[in-house]
Amino acid sequence: MTIFITISLIQFPDQALEASIRGLNLWWEVVFPSLLPFFITAELLLAFGVVNFIGVLFEPIMRPLFNIPGVGSFGWMMGMASGYPTGAKIAARLREEKQLTRIEAERLVAFTNNSSPLFIFGAISVGFFHDATLGVLIAICHYSSNAFVGIAMRFHGRNEKKKLQERRKKVSITMAFKAMHRTRLKDKRPFGEILGDAVLNSIKTLIMVGGFITLFSVLIKLLFLVGVTPAIASVIQGILSLFSLPIEFALPFLSGLFEITIGANMITQITTDSLLPKVILVSFILGFNGFSVQAQVASILAKTDIRFLPYFFARFLHGTIASILTIILFKPLYLDKQASETIDIPVSQTLDDNIWTKIVDLLTQNGALFTFFFLGLACIILYRKTVKKQ
User: Fold this and answer.
1) Which residues cross the membrane (predicted)?
2) Which of 210, 238, 281, 296 is least surrounded by Cβ atoms within 10 Å, i.e. has the fewest?
3) Structural domains of the chain, count
4) Residue numbers of the domain that contains 48
């Protein structure tokens, strides 16, 4: 693979550079500024014991549904709010702190890596489909199917020996505050150091994410140029025909299996009589996460003993359930809703008034400045740490 990439880069330098710049633009304009606040917040909440507080309160919910401790609810909520790979990062941190067993961490990773609402409503529904109302259908199918995946994965590893036999049975605000206080006392770092470490750890993770986004952007382009992608797409055509889906979606769908943004954009640009096949395929690749996101998750999990295979299996399950829910809910949540609207609103006005469009535009305009500011801040923190050690 390394030799193939090297030879392809030499053969197609201009196209590789263009793909690399496209991946970097996506990272520093949207991905970095949209994820960094969530990553820093997660690090701070972990350090201050708030996660333990939430864990005690949500134990009666998380244990029966997903067979994981209450602290897993933090990863679930943050994963839905900020998108991948936040769920994997939080699961890895909880595992490092011994708040989860390996099996519990694998269950948590399986259903906490979602697309963010910003991506679903802003990029997919408004940016690609140019239809803000479609975001409701996609979001409900995406998050509901991920919850079903979590319920299904509760049986993962049930035959292995349990390492933690005692579980909290009583739940109270007092117990939650005590758990938070104990966690805070264990961390002897002053607030300034905690904040600095939170910024550094978050930026390190996001730099890794940016590297994978750029790598897969270039890889997808090279595979297309050398003819590998069209060859695989011919096989996918047969699979799509089995499910009565247009074979024209083969190449865009394959691209989506590698990188969600590129694939979803290509799918929405194909002209069809019905919108349903497009939404079905987009729902699947959102649940599958794409090999780019999966590589990011694998890199995060590699630092722990959490296995990647359960997460990979869950991605197929998530994509399948999301596609089925899309078929079932397409009429009641989209067609019937459109038919019931009595006032015609111009499309341009609908998009301009959509909050997700405004957020995406804001990130695109100011995201690069935000990214470079925090990268500079990270350099200053690293320099000060180095000086203190000397």
Assistant:
1) 35-58, 249-267, 279-301, 308-330, 362-383
2) 238
3) 1
4) 2-160+168-389
